[in-house]
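Appendix C. Worked example: Histidine phosphatase family protein
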Amino acid sequence: MDIYLIRHGQTEANLLNKEKYTMFTGQYESPLTIEGEEQALKLSRSIKNMKFDKVYSSDLSRAVRTAEIVFPKNNINQTPLLRERSLGFFEGKRIDDLSNKEEYSTFNT
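Step 2, the predicted output written as structure tokens:
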């Protein structure tokens, strides 16, 4: 049995982290960018001749959307068991905004 792992395409949070600031993402919902959808489409084209018996995805929208693009003819089994780890209080927050908070210094040690 072969198992393939695919990461979701670029998200808005990925883009913000690259261009402006660093944000904790974790399970924070962030949609794919146009580039992220194009990345998924490119992957779909490159594996179009491969057969997949099952497709599993995290239930987070970025992973589901990527799977829908890459595997348009497959039933996608969504599960929270494949989610990114939860970052709790930190999710969706910028590191710059947290650096002076006690929770961050404890988390970062």
